[in-house]
Amino acid sequence: MDAEEVQIESEAVLKAIEAQHGLLAERARGIFSFSYLAFQEYFTARKIVASHNLQALEQALAGLVSHITDAHWREIFLLTATMLRSADGLVQLMKQQIDALVAQDPYLQEFLTWASQKSRTIPTQPKDATVRSFYLALSRTPHVAPHFALASSLDQGMFLDAALDDLLLECAIDGSQDFAHIHSCGDALSHILGIVLDVGLYKSLQQLSNQFPNSRQNQERFELWWQTNYSTWSEQLKTTITNYRNINHQWQFSAEQQQVLQRYYDANQLLLDCLNSNCEVTATIRQEIEATLLLPQKELEDREWQ
After folding, report:
1. Over the stretch 30-64, which tens digit does the pLDDT of each residue have?
2. Which candidate, 149, 169, 167, places its Cα nearest to that of 159?
3. Can you list the pairs that 118-121 forms with residues at least 24 positions away whose Cβ atoms lie under 8 Å?
């Protein structure tokens, strides 16, 4: 057939598929797309994997990784990872791209450094990256601290930090007109004392607990203490917790930094999802990536130098 006949036949095939199977849809005149996004995602991943040589594959993977913060590309990452004979190169490129998201912001690097320091204080079983993710989340969203209790129950230090963070949140609520709420802060502190192992922290918290008025005092005397002493007491509590547990730092992220952090979190989650799929990744690469998740740039560079 000549070119004109091919064009006519091709259009006829497209029209037949559109009319009979619903696989394709004409979105605009002469512009077709798949009716179901899954087909488009699959063929996109297939096109990347089917690159005709190593150089073309590297370019295709680099192009894919440039979309790591775009949620529309999530399934394509997962499909590509599972289609590749070896996903080592892809997950390494993803890791590099993710780390670059926060590499140039000193304040975000300080935030990651703090989380890394906290992870080194936990002597028990959780992986360092798991602990880092716990503290990054706890610092950004303290109002969900109670929900960390089950996740951190295997480690006394993480459980204590979640409880202390929740205590500070409770005590920060303006409950000056609520007698029951005021006492709930004192009760929470008493419960926390039961799980504190550090002698210095225990003594400091016990002193603060002793200063807290007894619930049997009448409401008038209690409110007088609240008005004259609570502000100082509350600051002492914050200082004690910060000094002993290195939490409750008042991180002040700009709107842009919050967006960057969210993209960074989501991209790390995508990387983990790829690693946990049926993709082929060598044990050495997997271990290295898991060990360096959520690390600040300086520690990444130190590891590379070592």
Report:
1. 787 888 889 899 999 999 999 888 899 999 999 99
2. 149
3. 118/161, 118/246, 118/247, 121/157, 121/246
* CA 300 – CA 297 distance, rounded (Å): 5
Percent of the chain with pLDDT over 70: 88
24 bridge partner residues: 34
Neighbours of 204 (CB within 10 A): 19
Which pair of structure tokens corresponds to residue 276? 């946990």
Question: What's the pTM?
Answer: 0.76
> Hey, what's the torsion of the CAs at 36, 42, 47, 51, to 10 degrees?
180
Query: How confident is the model over 269-300, as pLDDT tens digits?
Result: 999 999 999 899 999 999 999 899 999 999 99
**Number of neighbours of residue 70 by Cβ within 10 angstroms:** 12
Q: How is residue 267 written in tokens?
A: 């991209």
DSSP class of residue 213?
Answer: P
Map residue 122 onto helix, strand or coil: coil
Enumerate the β-bridge partners of residue 34. 24
Q: What's the distance, Cα to Cα, between the start and end of the chain in Å?
A: 64
